[in-house]
Amino acid sequence: MTQQGVRWTADQVLALAPDAASRKAGSKLGAAGPWSEAGSSKEGAVWGLCKGSGSKPYQTVVDTAGPAYKCSCPSRKFPCKHALGLLLLWAGDEGAGQAIPDAEAPEWAEQWLAGRRRRAEQQEAPDKGESKPADEEAARRRAARRAERVTAGVTELEQRLADLVRGGLASAEQTGHGLGEETARRMVDAQAPGLAARVQELGVIPASGAGWPVRLLEECALLHLLDQAWLRRERLPDALAATVRARIGLSSSAEGPAIRDRWLVLAQYDTADARLTTRRIWLRGQESGRTALLLSYGAAGRAPELALPVGLSLDAELSAYPGGGHRHALGERHAPAVPADLRPQGVDTHAAAAAYGRALREDPWLESWPVTLHDVIPTPVGDGMQLADADGAGALPVVPVSRPGLWRLAAVSGGGGVTVFGECGHRGFTPLTVWAGDGGGAVPLC
Amino acid sequence: MTGQETAQAGAASWEELVTTALLGTDRRGIGRAAVRGRKDAATALLDEAALHTVRRRAGLRPGSAAPRPERAQDDPRPALPAAARRRLALLLSDRPGTGSSGRRGSTPDLTELLPQWLAAANDHGYAAPAELLPALLDAARGRTDLRPPALAFAGPRALWLARLNPEWKFALRTTPGGSALPSPEDSEAVGRLWEEGLFAERVALLGAVRAHDPGAARALVESTWSTERAEDRLMFLDSLRTGLADGDEAFLERALSDRSRNVRTTAAELLSALPGSALAGRMARRAATCVALDALRTGITVEAPHECDPGMERDGVVASPPPGRGQRAWWLGQLVEAAPLATWPQRLGGRSPAEIVALPVADDWQGELHAAWCRAAVRQQDAEWSRALLGAASSPGAAGPGAVSLAERAKLLGTLPEQERAEWVAGFIAAHGLSEAFQLLGVCAVPWAEPLGGAVVDALNIARDAGSYPWSFSGVMGLAERCLDPAAASRLEALTATPDETEDGAPGAGGYWAEAFQRLVGTLRLRAVMREELAGAV
Fold first, then answer.
1. pLDDT for residue B100
2. How far is B101 from chain A (nearest CA, A)?
3. In whole angstroms, what is the distance from residue A30 CA to residue B433 CA?
4. I need a surface site. Which of A182, A317, B378, B415 has the fewest CB within 10 A?
5. Is the residue at B139 inside a domain?
6. From A161, A165, A415, residue closest to B69, measured CB to CB
7. Does residue A170 belong to the interface with chain B, where contact is any CB pair within 8 Å?
8. Residue A73, Cα to own-chain centre: how many angstroms?
């Protein structure tokens, strides 16, 4: 596969923008006007000088293989509007090569690109020397100490949950965040961030509207289940024990063997809280049929660095995290991502619900399971929407990521059957990407 | 989804568990079977609840399907070229009010290019990509001027979609009944919709039929004329403006005795636009008695009407003048405006319109008379009279032959062929600069033909050298970005550099001008690219 001439679409570029304002600012710079001395290399680097308000133009360079960006502007947005504008210009210039001709990188760009190549080579170089036994011993001791602290935290949490149920959940409505905030802090102290996050969410359920006692009891019960699983982790099968450790929040590394495949990007979406932007990227291996999840993080207001726009196919190696879940780490990439006109095979709503049910056997704390629905019709129901099998056999309620996404879903269907990738869970189906019934590419819904 | 509760004998039911948890196990016990001695009640309840929760989730099944939605009509138009589709996505992602700073920078204003893009896409007859319909409807919702081209482009699926979202109701109003208008040839369906349809549907139907067969449209209006409300009669009458022909005269003549004054006035106006009509003849006779050559046959004398008789009123002359205007002048204006312009060469010694306009007019009547001729020229779309009344583009504004306002000039220009319009406005700009040109530029065909484009660029250049700030010309700049021929971009390149500060210039103006010209050039380039993309050349 040649790397040359494979340019992204504008949608793919815009998907990199950290927020709507950047998207807009970038769009405006995606025209030849402010740019000079722009060019791109066969290796996938793009560079250019962008005239700003000052006398000296900004130097912008992007390595599309990363993608990684560098710009001399002072913006703290990442990528900045100049990088976005440059990529848009590059994307829109497909084949014409007028605005961004193939060229050798100028020195200022080459410096940075060379630095990146050097670092990449260093990373690939095998680790020097074996880790010493003493280090392993120390690591084991550290792990044991941490496990003790987690156990102490878990025990305390069990006590608090029991107290809550003894006194009645009704009191939780009055105390409001009481259980959440303080207990969550205790769990952070106990080095169990997974528990802390769950406890935090527990705190907001009483204010979440009708039916909150049911949801609160469910969440308390699942938390209790997690506590009990931790306390009995020695007796659990390996995979389940790994899942429990991950749910508690103990970090692990992706140790699975590298799986090389052409990975189709099914969906990419961000969720943000006050401190952190979390990006989820769903991939599907065209050979292995394996579904994989890549997680990446960015500080609030910055887009996570890893960006794989929907509809691309990526020749790369992935390795799984322990525990049998979907989470993988991205290893070596063998070629830049290229657009692929592929769509995943799908199932009907019954199979989708059953898949989620089966998955709960391995991980009872699962909120949802990635599924592709085939030939379903987005059907308005009251204020909401359901995805109904075209033969009317069943329907899953839609839990939207965003309203505009829901309208796009309806627009693409036009009342006909579509293929939808999304997350199927106990609250319903969250559509992430849709393919029209009569052909055409992937349309992201988030 | 529905959970299949399979409560086992002896185990507490889920509802029971929730109630107990809500009140607290201290107040309410749980089923005895669930408490197995060694555990306290709270832990036992949590155990039981965990089991229930996971079991319920694992047992979830799809619910039953609601009635399926109607399918959207097929759009037979060809799909957009890929590059044009991406461009549209970009134009639509640039929405006003999303974190913009006040000052316009050196980059193109994408929102302003959307109308042009839509018009071009409609000329090519492309279908809109389904996934962009929501953004397209949102854009049209915010800007009424975008609605007709946006909805034409969006096609049947957008109307289907608009029914799902109350925010897009405007689409259904603008294009009533979706695309369900019957074919104008299907007289039975047309008749039924005319009888039973909503007002907006009927107006749209009338427009469609009028475009297809003017006579049939008139017959439709006549068929229910006496039972319509006055406002509706007015609207229907107005629809006849398109395709107005002598065949409409009999009907319009009857409408002159309508109960509603607005209907009568409109009918009279329409009739006066038919030079061969009886009304036009009556007005010509009345006007001719007021305007004549003087004794030496070298000037015009005016004898304004002394009364507004019932015949005049029936022919649409409004008897009472607006405040501040003399009665007789008011009546005169209306008579001359409604009289066919062909009356005057005959009446005034066989002179051409230009010669007539050049004749002196006695007793300060020139203003009234020329203004009325201007209105007549616009109403009757008479290019020769318009030309005469506009005079030379270079003549000073206030001393123009008709002393006509810019708004009137713009209307007169509208009756001239495109090239002549461009030439006249170019001459005007060369003589008077840009400060008054905005309205006139607005009536010129896009892209601006030469010499107009060159005149605008030269004038902008002069304004810059004169040391003023570019935002004094932001209106013209914006127009130039949208209307200059993209081929002009290369000529403008030299103007994008920041010039040295001059002593008498406004501080910093040079930089702002460079920025404004950069935006102009950038926008022109972008328009050229957009055009190529739509042509499928990229």
1. 40
2. 10
3. 33
4. A182
5. no
6. A415
7. yes
8. 28
Same domain? For A333 and A364 the reply is no
B350 and B454: one domain? no
Considering the domain architecture, whether residues A113 and A15 belong to the same structural domain is answered as yes
Coil, strand or helix: which one is B91?
helix
The answer to whether residues B300 and B268 belong to one domain is: no
Other beta carbons within 10 angstroms of residue B251's beta carbon come to 17
Residue B176 pLDDT > 60 = no
Question: Does the beta carbon of A10 lie under 8 angstroms from any beta carbon of chain B?
Answer: yes
Token representation of residue B511: 């930089």
Q: Looking at the structure, do residues A267 and A236 belong to the same domain, yes or no?
A: no
The pLDDT-based confidence of B4 (bands split at 50, 70, 90) is: very low
CB of A212 less than 8 A from some CB of B? no
Instruction: Note whether B441 and B496 are same-domain residues.
Output: yes
Q: Which domain holds residue B215?
A: 187-272
Q: Please answer yes or no on whether B93 and A408 come within 8 Å at the CB atom.
A: no
Q: What is the pLDDT of residues A307-327, one digit of tens each?
A: 888 888 989 999 998 877 888
CA distances from B304 to B88, B311, B356 (A): 59, 16, 18
* Mean confidence (pLDDT) of chain B: 82
Does residue B292 sit in the same domain as residue B340?
yes
CA closest to B527 among chain A residues = A31
B368 and B296 co-located in one domain: yes
Top residue of B68, B88, B533 to mutate, by most chain A CBs within 10 Å, is B68
Instruction: Examine the domain organization and report whether A31 and A108 are in the same domain.
Output: yes
* Residue A176 sits in the same domain as residue A266: no
The CA distance from B394 to the nearest CA of chain A, in Å, is 35
Last-in-domain residue among A248, A269, A287: A248
Contacts of A407 in chain B (CB under 8 A): 133-134, 161, 164-165
Chain A nearest CA to B130, separation (Å)? 5
Chain B contact present for A185, CB below 8 A: no
Distance from CA of B132 to the nearest CA of A (A): 7
Confidence of residue B101 (pLDDT cuts 50, 70, 90): very low
- Residue recorded with tokens 């196990």: B25
In a domain, B389, yes or no: yes
Domain assignment present for B151? no
Look at the alpha carbons of B328, B333, B334, B336 in this order and tell me if their dihedral is positive or negative: positive
Query: Cβ contacts of residue B342 below 8 Å, gap of 6+?
Result: B275
pLDDT at B401: 47
Residues B427, B397 share a domain: no
Q: Which sign, positive or negative, has the C-alpha torsion B66, B70, B76, B78?
A: negative
Asked whether residue B114 is domain-assigned, the answer is: no
Q: How many domains does chain B have?
A: 4
The pTM of this model reads 0.73
pLDDT tens-digit profile of A251-296? 778 888 899 999 999 999 888 877 788 899 999 999 888 999 999 8
In a domain, A129, yes or no: no
Q: Is the same domain home to A328 and A369?
A: no
Quick check: B131 and A443 CB within 8 A?
Answer: yes
Write out pLDDT tens, residues B292-335.
888 888 888 888 888 888 888 888 888 888 888 888 889 998 99
- With an 8 Å Cβ cutoff, are B62 and A11 in contact? no
Instruction: Compare CB distances from A33 to B18, B26, B521 and report the shortest one's residue.
Output: B521
Q: What is the spatial distance between Cα B512 and Cα A53, in angstroms, rounded to a whole number?
A: 10
**Do A14 and A112 sit in the same domain of this protein?**
yes
Which is nearest to A376 in space by CA: A404, A346, A356, A403?
A: A346
**Chain A residue with Cα closest to B492:** A33
> Are A356 and A320 part of one and the same domain?
no
Q: Dihedral (C-alpha) A162, A167, A168, A170: value to the nearest 10 degrees?
A: -130
- Report the pLDDT value the prediction gives residue B96, as an integer from 0 to 100: 52
User: Count of CB contacts below 8 A, A vs B?
Assistant: 237
Domain span including residue A301: 259-339
Place of tokens 């193109």: B108
Q: Please report whether residue A130 resides in a domain.
A: no
B24 with A170: Cβ contact below 8 A? yes
Q: Do A10 and B86 touch (CB under 8 A)?
A: yes
B336 and B410 part of one domain: yes
Name which of A253, A296, A247 is nearest A276 in CA terms.
A296
What would the pLDDT profile of B453-473 be if each residue is shown by its tens digit? 888 888 888 888 777 777 778
Q: Domain check: are B345 and B424 in the same one?
A: no
Q: Which of B42, B60, B519 sits opposite A165 (nearest CB)?
A: B42
Report, as an integer, the average pLDDT of A55-74.
83
